[in-house]
Amino acid sequence: MPLPRSAGPRRWPRLDALAFGGDYNPEQWPQDVWAEDVALMRQAGVNLVNLGVFAWGLLEPAPDVYDFGWLDQVFDLLAAGGIAVDLATPTAAPPPWFARAHPDSLPVTRDGRRLGTGSRQAICPSSPAFAEASVRIAGKLAEHFGRRDNLVLWHVFNEYMAPTGECYCQESVRHFRRWLRTRYGTLGALNQAWGTTFWGQIYGDWDEIDAPRTAPSAVNPAQRLDFARFTNDAWLECYRRERDAIREHCPDVPVTTNFQDVRCKGLNQWAWAAEVDVVGNGHYLAAEDADNHIGLALAADLTRGVAAGRPWLLLEHSTSAVNWQQRNIAKRPGEMARNSLAHFARGADGILFFQWRASRFGQEKFHSAMLPHGGTDTRIWREVVDLGTSLAALGEARGARVVADVAVVWDWESWWALELDWRPSADVRYVDQVTRWYEQLWRSHLTVDFVPPDAELDRYPMVVVPSLYLTAEAAAKNLRGYVEAGGTLVVSFFSGIVDENDTVISGALPGALRDLLGITIEEFLPLRADERVTVIPNDFAADSSQNWGGTIWADDIRLRDAESFAFYADGPAAGKPAVTRNRVGAGTAWYVSTALDGADLKALLAQIGAVRPAFAGLPETVEVVRRAGAGAEYVTVINHGAQDAVLPVGGFELLIGSEVTELVAPAGQVRVVRVVQPPVESPAPPYESQARY
Questions:
Q1: What are the C-alpha distances in Å from 631 to residues 403, 426, 454, 678, 679?
Q2: What is the pTM of this model?
Q3: I need a labelling partner for 600 at 20 to 30 A (CA). Which of 242, 441, 485, 490 fits?
Q4: Catalytic one of 60, 159, 439, 500
């Protein structure tokens, strides 16, 4: 069944500029600091803060006893300073009295350990007590603060499934059984979907079904896949309950929550997108990665994909180091601006941080902030003020849409299924395979839209499908229709293998994509950990300098309708096709059966040649993204390299405030040029907004 697709954000916060600010936790500080905070926020250009994320214990110090006075004072101070509020429900951190009163609400791990308190998200999503308490506090907050003039957004919970995802308590088991009854209707349908005749798991009563706990051996993969779906839906129910409680008292203010791009495996954001008014994301660099700005670009593009191409909010990122990675690498001068403006370039109409003022105590006291421990006489503070000035200059680009060159198919359910037990190779990790393709598209200066497998694809000249292990029938038909209509489809190994129940699709591999690709895979040939294979493009068989290298995987391919584009020179598939192409209707379907080395994958993309970048010949270190608005295009150039770059683009440069006939992007800096375009029919408004702040 196709997932619901959001038309993008339905309503936008009442802001007259790009959002700028972050999480504000005044409860961590004496009241005489609050006025100073607001004054400094004004100096930095802050116009939006997120309040109350972890304040449940102060807002409701005892069951059904409320103290909102201190938060009223904060609202008043912020309003006087012209600063809008994104008010959070504090339900990601229940107070100690809640756990004491409801110990059964604490989550249970797969191996049966009940987790304790003293952290956050110590919650079972199926807990009736949590459902009642979370709705109560959300409703009380909405009733009390819902008419505040500077309230422009609601923020439900905080980072669903980070860290608590699946819960294996008895209440979750009962909830899971109800969910299965709704999904399958009968035990016969469930037994068939789960293939329970294997290992004699046939169920004769709903109460025989348990959560897929740790067992003596691998647990039924269809059961585990359904438990992942159930967990996603259970948390989504939690969100809906709080959202609806808010809307009962405050129907006109948009509601969101903060996703975590590729860091949160368990949250199917295609399903969640239809439930939020504004798509918001929190992103943190993989700080030790040499080219972590590519991972940032991937995360931003994925979030924009979840938002169906419309603008979105960056609700969290860091000014410098975080505190929870193995080695918390600080950002170098200029890196925060590049990070922030890269998110803007890829569709974010708001740039917010965790957090405003660095904490002196607690688990995250070494996490960077907009106002560091050292105060205003610090490089980070000066860069924050400069960023506020830059975002103010870019305000006219609000609502402009990113212009993408290619699409990459992303599917959370395929990710869940691919990484269950006993797959052909533990080295095939979903995000790794997507990243492998994305990186070379980025280095080729091509902008990516991430799309679900059932998306409309006809506007893209090329669509890339990395390791779509689980391929539903509707997805296979959609991909075939795209190719028949003239599209270029590029599919990587271990795709098309199973249906939505993790059942191998009948017939020869690769199952759902067999006819489209025009090949038969006789056998998977995964490679050893240190094994490499040599791949030779057919046109360069006599030129060893053109050889490519591959790792992780190979296939024993038999050609049917397809032709070989490159073959294996060695390894377990020596002499067999490695890369194939098949002409179907007006288009072409390519298959790549190994993990090509980065430069070789980039070379293959160039030879496929389905799309060319808007600006050719640039160094790989120069990132260029375009956003198109009404009558203008905004070209953002981010120079990650050590040398200045020159681009043949003229217009008004917004950050330096002058006309340019050609653009010079200094090393390590960002430039944004407004290029006036002929008037065209305006697309649907990106969001509805009546700006006040």
A1: 14, 50, 32, 6, 5
A2: 0.96
A3: 485
A4: 159
